[in-house]
Design brief:
This protein is of the alpha/beta class and 363 residues long. It contains eleven helices and 17 strands. The longest helix is centred in the C-terminal third of the chain and has 14 residues. It is elongated and about 95 Å long.
């Protein structure tokens, strides 16, 4: 009983010629419009098997025999090379109704080997297919997660649903030469802040003391310590899981001498241990940073320093609104704003709502 060919092969008509006649045979197959470009020419011993899209007609066969007397029309089992699918739309266009294609997410987040997608309600019935296609189109991805809740609670976490791949939420993420271990279900992290991490770290000068008030797993603190030779960073967070990963990431990135992790509420920690020591304070808690402006001012050295303030701000004037909020909050303290150094939108987080970064020099 003959063996069945593997599933990743296909039988197709071919032109068998010696290697010496290969170029001539290929030119002729192209001229006759019978060359199968979907399959690859096979080298076997001294012969080539050139795939054809169909059996040549009588006229085409005569022309082949005239040009290549030693050529032979035959059948060969060719390996099938899977076509690379560039986008989700290309992969799903023959699997989903046209009106559903328009609802496909245009972007997703990649954190290590995990892809995170937001599934709109109209795609709920197709979310498993979406997950499988993400795996297919992104070979580095081992798990596809769907956001199944909003960021909430004191620890700023959200729930996820595994759509495809390995059942996990823990991964290793690399950014700007740093390595971060994290569990997306236990800590807050956004790869969309990558440029912001680098922007702030690049401003830090030699000899500065930094307080990262809401440090999470450490992307601001650790990158700063890696970029600046002489710096001291105090990284605080109220989430025990975040601080656990922070401690691990400090060791992995070999910045133990520069970054001090502290578990607890930033307000209490600064009042008890870190008053008046900072040249620079990072306030990446856009939901509630405004409530901590007073204690951020207390953390700065008596002569003043820099605050990197983050806020969610709405249209029509998100930058102006965020600056005004910060200036007004600082007026309630013994400090004052010497200068707004910069204000920029970081990312859109909802319709007409942006995360805004304001850098202010405080005296």
């Amino acid at each position: 009983m003959p063996r069945k060919p593997p599933m990743n092969t296909i039988k197709a008509p071919c032109l068998k010629v010696s290697k010496a006649l290969g170029e001539k045979a290929l030119r002729l197959a192209k001229k006759l419009a019978v060359l199968n470009c979907e399959l690859k020419v096979q080298h076997v011993g001294e012969n080539l098997y050139i795939p054809l899209v169909k059996e040549p007609t009588t006229t085409q066969t005569e022309e082949i025999r005239s040009a290549l007397p030693k050529g032979k029309i035959s059948v060969y089992t060719f390996p099938v090379h899977k076509k690379h699918i560039a986008t989700l739309i290309e992969a799903l266009e023959d699997k989903l109704p046209p009106h559903i294609i328009a609802s496909l997410p245009r972007s997703m987040d990649f954190v290590g080997e995990i892809a995170i997608v937001e599934v709109p309600p109209e795609l709920e019935s197709y979310k498993e297919a979406l997950g499988e296609v993400v795996l297919e189109t992104h070979k580095q991805v081992h798990t596809v997660l769907a956001k199944s809740g909003v960021v909430e609670g004191v620890y700023r976490t959200r729930e996820f649903e595994v759509l495809a791949g390995e059942e996990k939420t823990e991964t290793v993420y690399r950014e700007h030469g740093c390595t971060y271990h994290l569990d997306l279900a236990k800590v807050y992290f956004s790869p969309r802040l990558s440029n912001e991490h680098n922007r702030v770290a690049s401003q830090v000068k030699e000899g500065e003391t930094i307080i990262d008030m809401f440090a999470g797993i450490g992307p601001f603190s650790i990158l700063t310590a890696k970029k600046v030779r002489n710096v001291q960073v105090y990284a605080t967070d109220v989430n025990p899981d975040a601080v656990s990963y922070l401690r691990r990431n400090i060791v992995v990135n070999r910045v133990q001498a520069k970054v001090t992790p502290i578990l607890g509420d930033a307000r209490q920690i600064i009042k008890e241990r870190l008053t008046g020591i900072a040249d620079r304070v990072i306030m990446n808690l856009p939901e509630k940073a405004i409530e901590y402006v007073d204690v951020a001012c207390e953390a700065l050295k008596p002569e003043g320093g820099i605050i990197h303030y983050y806020e969610f701000s709405r249209a029509p004037k998100p930058l102006k609104t965020a600056q005004s909020q910060l200036i007004e909050a600082i007026r309630e303290t013994p400090r004052e704003v010497k200068k707004i150094l910069s204000a920029r939108t970081v990312r859109e987080v909802a319709p007409f709502t942006w995360q805004v970064a304001v850098d202010a020099e405080i005296q």
